[in-house]
Design goal:
Distance between the termini: 46 Å
Largest sheet: 10 strands, mixed
Radius of gyration: 22 Å
CATH topology of the largest domain: Spore Coat Polysaccharide Biosynthesis Protein SpsA, Chain A
Shape: globular
Oligomer: single chain
CATH architecture of the largest domain: Alpha-Beta Complex
Number of domains: 2
CATH superfamily of the largest domain: Spore Coat Polysaccharide Biosynthesis Protein SpsA, Chain A
Number of strands: 37
Number of helices: 6
CATH class of the largest domain: Alpha Beta
């Protein structure tokens, strides 16, 4: 089975974290987001991965190379990025038989992808609490009879999870017309498959589309919880490591540090002295958490520094961020309502009572900066000493 993985988009709703990385390459625990998808496909039995790339394509190529986990790797360029069917069409020259299509910015439980592979044609289906927010599958027993986008009164709670196993002839079905959104949609290819063949569904036990920053936090909460304790780096005798903690070789934990897992500390990172790291936290390669700093339930990406007397909670810091001493992230509204964030110009509820800030690559804060919940700092932003930041910049 060949697997096409869609990884061409920038991820505009994930800005500013995608200023230098395509969304599928954002870190989820110990690997990029799309690597979890690729490994699920390999575990399910794929022998060839075809990555459809576009924005910052070289980042994807450098990571996966020509072979990954024993599977051959090829790359197809999506030039115009005119929708998901257009993306799969970019890979058409590689397709030789039945093939699977997976979204590179979705997380799937691995056993479900194996079930998908076992039945062609089939579509991944997830039981959603609010199915009207998705494309809803209509079914007759185990057979899919149709798909309806965001219906007001859905017939089932089974929604399209963006995972497909297509027969070989679907290679010729990819030239669908543009829909209402001005894009060529893979769901129209699925509709053709439903018309031409009997399409089954593979129920996805756990699924997460990672489209917005707070979903990146949720994804890390999921995958960090799956890690096993593994301490290989240098750890001071009086450091206190509790629960599932991974300290990679080359990382350093200084005296007086308390770490409560699940926490992953990548190679080259340094924590302490007297720091407190807790919750589902990822400290990227060569990052720095310094004297008396507390970091809770956050992602701090490679080469970023939170060096002195600061607090970071429920937040996402990009690469090469530098927080001045005493920088404090507020992560709770006074009215206890869900924190909102601006996404593509619209205020959007994160659905999270506790949520901090999103900070783009290369940002620096002055000493004693205070950042309000839901604030977004663009790549390269600056704050002044003693500044209180309540709006995006």
């Amino acid at each position: 089975m060949q697997t096409v993985i869609l990884a061409a988009g920038e991820g505009t709703r994930m800005r500013p974290l995608t200023a230098n990385l395509p969304k599928p390459m954002l870190p989820i625990a110990d690997r990029p987001l799309v690597a979890h998808t690729a490994e699920a496909a390999v575990d399910a039995g794929t022998d060839e991965l075809i990555f459809v790339v576009g924005y910052e394509a070289d980042v994807v190529r450098e990571y996966f190379g020509e072979e990954y986990q024993g599977a051959q790797v090829n790359y197809a360029i999506q030039e115009g990025q005119e929708g998901t069917a257009d993306a799969v069409a970019a890979a058409r020259d590689y397709l030789e038989g039945d093939f699977c299509v997976l979204n590179g910015d979705d997380l799937y439980d691995r056993a479900s992808i194996a079930t998908l592979f076992d039945s062609v044609p089939s579509v991944g289906a997830y039981r959603a609490d609010e199915p009207s927010n998705y494309g809803v599958l209509t079914v007759d027993g185990g057979r899919v009879t149709g798909i309806v986008e965001k219906p007001d009164e859905p017939d089932t709670d089974l929604v399209n999870a963006g995972a497909y196993a297509f027969p070989a002839e679907a290679r010729e079905w990819l030239d669908v017309p543009k829909g209402d959104r001005g894009e060529r949609e893979i769901t129209d290819v699925l509709a053709r498959a439903i018309k031409e063949r009997e399409v089954s569904y593979a129920e996805i036990g756990r699924w997460l589309g990672v489209g917005r920053p707070w979903e990146l936090l949720e994804a890390n909460e999921w995958k960090l919880a799956d890690l096993d304790r593994d301490v290989r780096g240098e750890v001071a005798d009086d450091a206190d490591l509790r629960g599932t903690v991974v300290v990679e070789e080359g990382a350093t934990i200084e005296p007086g540090v308390v770490i409560e897992g699940p926490v992953l500390i990548r190679s080259g990172a340094r924590v302490g002295p007297n720091a407190y790291v807790r919750g589902a936290t990822l400290l990227g390669a060569n990052s720095r958490v310094g004297q008396s700093v507390e970091v809770k339930n956050s992602v701090i990406m490679a080469d970023s520094k939170v060096p002195h007397l600061s607090y970071v909670g429920d937040s996402l810091l990009g690469q090469e961020v530098n927080f001045g001493a005493g920088t404090t992230v507020a992560n709770l509204r006074h009215d206890d309502e869900a924190v909102e964030q601006t996404v593509k110009g619209e205020r959007t509820s994160t659905g999270r009572r506790k949520y901090g800030v999103v900070v783009g690559d290369g940002t620096k804060t002055g000493i004693d900066t205070t950042l309000y919940p839901g604030v977004v700092l663009s790549a390269g932003a600056r704050t002044e000493p003693n500044e209180t930041v309540s709006r995006d910049r």
